[in-house]
Design brief:
about 200 residues, alpha/beta, Rossmann fold, five-stranded mixed beta sheet
Amino acid sequence: MLASGFEEIEASTIVDVLRRSGVDVVVAALVQGLVKGSHGMRFASDTTIDKVAAADFDAIVCPGGAPGYMNLRNDQKVLAMIQEAFKSNKLVAAICAAPAVLSDAGILRGKMCTIYPGMEGELEGGGGIVSKKTVVIDGNVLTSQGPATALAFALKLAEELAGEKTALEVGRRMLADEILERSTRSSDSTLHGHDVEN
C-alpha cells in the first residue's frame, strides 16, 4: 500500500526483494498516477486501493514514512483491508511508523511487534506487546523499525511468501548476509543473520 509521503527506501526495498524472490507484487496507491515520497522521489503505482480487495492477495504490506503512514491510517478502506486480511490469516506487515496503521486497524492486541523507536505508545495503545528487535513476526503479523531495517524486513517477507530457501538465495546474491550479520553481530537473537524475533 502506497500513500503520499511514504518512505522511499522501505517501499523500493520491499518491492525489489519480493520481485527478485518471484513474488507477484501489486503496488496499490491511495491516488492514481505518480506518488511522491517523503524525500521527493516519485513512484508509479500499479493500481489504486479502490480497485483491489484483500481477498486477491496473500499479504498486505505498508511502508512507513511521514506523512505516508498518517495518510494510510486515515483511509477507512486501508484499515478495512488490513482487518479482512488479518481475519483471513493472510500476512499483514508494516515497517517504520506504519505499525501504527496496524494498531489503528485493531490487529495488534496481544501480538509481539515493533515500530520506529520513540513511537512505542502507538503499539501499546492498540494492545501490542512492544519488542526492541528490528524485525518481529507473531503469527501472521510482521513488523520492523525503519529504513535501515528494510532489507531484513523484506527478506523475512520473502521467506514467508516464497520460502526460506528462496529468501536465503536472494539474500546471498544481494550480499545481504555479510551486511546483516555485521550489523547484528552483538545480538543475542539472530535468524540467518537477521535480528528477528519470532
